[in-house]
Amino acid sequence: MTDQPPGSPYEPEDVVQQDGVGDADPFLRLWTPHRMAYIAGENKPTSDAAGSCPFCRIPALPDADGLIVQRAEAAYAVLNLYPYNPGHLMVVPYRHVADYTELTPAEVADVARLTQEAMVAVREVSAAHGFNIGMNQGEIAGAGIAAHLHQHVVPRWGGDTNFMPVIGQTKVLPQLLADTRSLLAKNWPTG
């Protein structure tokens, strides 16, 4: 048994050691088995073909079913099914294209405008302190679906990086995605 951290509310008898997993620690576990779908590759395309791409299928669904928050001519904003933080959106061109340099001027304009509008909407409903915005270009750069470009808009708050994601590899999301989508869609700025 290792020493408890200063101020730990857990007494040594509260910590159960599982055989074969190393030394016990003072952390409780918040199990998130739904994340296994992402880890196992649910909804990941099996090829680069547009027909197997979730970003190509989503626009054909009703907005609430596809978690689409806003549509524009050449792109749309959709909630991330596996969010890093509450309100994590992606801005996606309708056209199945992998590289930012392949976007048309109209697609670049819509991606940029929807990103700005997403920031306004998220600030309105959740008072985000900041954002991480970016694209992972290619599988080697971390793109989960490299064949279809998408830009992440991740809201951030002071103190949102705590032991849960850093140590526990777990995010606590206080709201259902359908509720988040509805709230953002209602508060999306009109262009």
UniProtKB/TrEMBL annotation:
Known EC number: 2.7.7.53
Gene Ontology molecular function, alphabetical: ATP:ADP adenylyltransferase activity; nucleotide binding
Active-site residue numbers: 150
Matches recorded under Pfam families: HIT (PF01230)
UniProt entry keywords in alphabetical sequence: Nucleotide-binding, Nucleotidyltransferase, Transferase
InterPro entries linked: AP-4-A_phosphorylase (IPR052908), FHIT (IPR039383), HIT-like (IPR011146), HIT-like_sf (IPR036265)
Binding site for substrate: 80, 152
Protein name (database record): ATP adenylyltransferase
Organism whose genome encodes this protein: Kribbella italica
